[in-house]
Amino acid sequence: MNFRLPQVDTSLPYRTKILPFLFFSLLAFSLSAQKEELNKYHALSARILGIDNESLNEDLTDLNTTFGLEIGYRYQFSKLFGVALPLKFGLLDVGENNNLNFISLDLLGHFYPAGTNVKVAPYFLAGIGATAEGVDNSNRQVPVGLGFNFQLGENSFLSIQGEARFNSDPDRDNIQVGVGYIYRLAKVDNDADGIINREDRCPDEAGPLSTGGCPDTDGDNIADSEDACPEVAGIFALRGCPDTDEDGIADAEDKCPDQAGTAEGEGCPDTDGDGVYDHKDDCPEEAGRSANGCPLPDRDADGTPDAEDDCPTKPGPVDKLGCPDTDGDGKHDNEDACPLQYAETEDGCPPADRDKDGTPNDEDRCPDEFGPPENKGCPEVEAEVERLLEFATQNVQFETGSARLKLESEAVLDDIAEIMRRYPAYSLIISGHTDNVGNDDNNQVLSENRARACKDYLVGQGISTARMSYVGYGETRPKRSNDTEAGRRLNRRVEFDLRLL
């Protein structure tokens, strides 16, 4: 390929001369005006191009969009301006010669109105370029356009750019749109403090990382610009000023700079805890209620001054007006009708409890019999009684297929009547059961009749019917398998369940 730099052509359209001149003049003015550069860096770029050969050429129609590849070098002079040298390869469709190879080299100026250190950086471009087509033709071009750089990482950018290229030869104007990648070769650290400019709060003044790159003369990790005492190390909470006693109050405002105190006490402590801070307390080691911090008269030394003490000669807690609470029931003695008996009642006396079992009469189901509170004040059923009730289950007998009690069953029921008299607060539930021999309905009726027969006998022994109930379950609740005679015998039973009323 014969690549020839173009000769000066006085016939070059006016637009191809004046636009680069104006752009580079503005660039030169900016560079001369900026004495301190904060954003200098080198970068490499690569881009894929789409080339429209028709839109800017009125005499050409039905041309194909072609493609190219661009690689380039960039140098950023300042926050706003940079230059680029893109080298392009690709194909052109110029009508008479489709898919014509070309190679071009441009010198471009970039203008970033928002700077480069933003997430999305738009820029304008203009410049001059030389293009070689095929093996024997070359021309000059003036590119102008607009682009956007999207920051992907610390030094990585996605770039989208569109440009119109005005050519010195006829029918060679074109539009190029490209998508590519830019990599910045070096970090920018103008003040050489190890923190790059875009992360440095003070890019022109060296400072440590702890203050974001800003100076910290006293080394207290607070930047001088935010430090009310930049020459003396202090703490952040006090805007960099010292706090000798570490009480959170700057020494200049602390009435007791060598003693830790509180803001309410102007930096002074309250040693005796009486609410009067030491610098105003005439008795700083002794708690007092007076305005000068000294104690008021308190004969019983219970912490309640005599003037406020309902029991000035007997020590008691402050929340009880200086009176004791001997029985600890929450009512101090001068209001407690029973000061030696614990009771959480209105008058401080325990409620009446005739049997002294700990359950008050009004809650005691058995007020004249000692019983635990969990049994409602009634005596618990003794184990011997439980055994007798279990014995009665299998030993209350009836005539076969009948609800008629056998004579020997009466002695067992007499024992149950005696139990009912012994435990007047209890009720009795009588339940009848049968085996599975015979008709289900008949068994149900038989179980009910047998349970009722037991109840009727006990009524005859003087037990109130109101304390007893009966139910029949028929053959629905067997205790053993009905497949054996022994099992059927156990299933034919009447159960007696003693419960509190």
In short:
Helix content is 15%, strand content 24%.
What does this structure look like?
An eight-stranded antiparallel barrel has the order 1-2-3-4-5-6-7-8. The protein has a three-stranded mixed beta sheet with strand order 10-9-11. α4 links the parallel β9 and β10. Helices cover 15% and strands 24% of the residues. The longest helix is centred in the C-terminal third of the chain and has 21 residues. The chain starts with 14 loop residues before the first helix and ends with a strand. It is elongated. The protein contains five helices and eleven strands. The protein has 501 residues and is of the alpha+beta class.
Secondary-structure map:
Blueprint: H1 15-33, E1 41-52, E2 66-76, E3 81-92, E4 100-111, E5 120-133, E6 137-151, E7 156-167, E8 174-184, H2 383-395, H3 409-422, E9 426-433, H4 440-460, E10 468-472, H5 485-491, E11 493-500
Parallel strand pairs: 9-10
Antiparallel strand pairs: 1-2, 1-8, 2-3, 3-4, 4-5, 5-6, 6-7, 7-8, 9-11
Helix pairs in contact: 2-3
Low-confidence stretches: 1-16, 29-38
What is the tally of beta strands?
11
- Strand line-up of the largest beta sheet: 1-2-3-4-5-6-7-8
Fraction of residues in H or I helices: 10-25%
Envelope shape: elongated
Q: How many helical stretches?
A: 5
| Secondary-structure-derived class | alpha+beta
Order of helices and strands: HEEEEEEEEHHEHEHE
Give the overall average pLDDT. Answer: 84
* C-alpha end-to-end distance: 118 Å
Radius of gyration: 54 Å
The amount of beta strand, in percent, is: 15-25%
Largest β-sheet summary: 8 strands, antiparallel, barrel
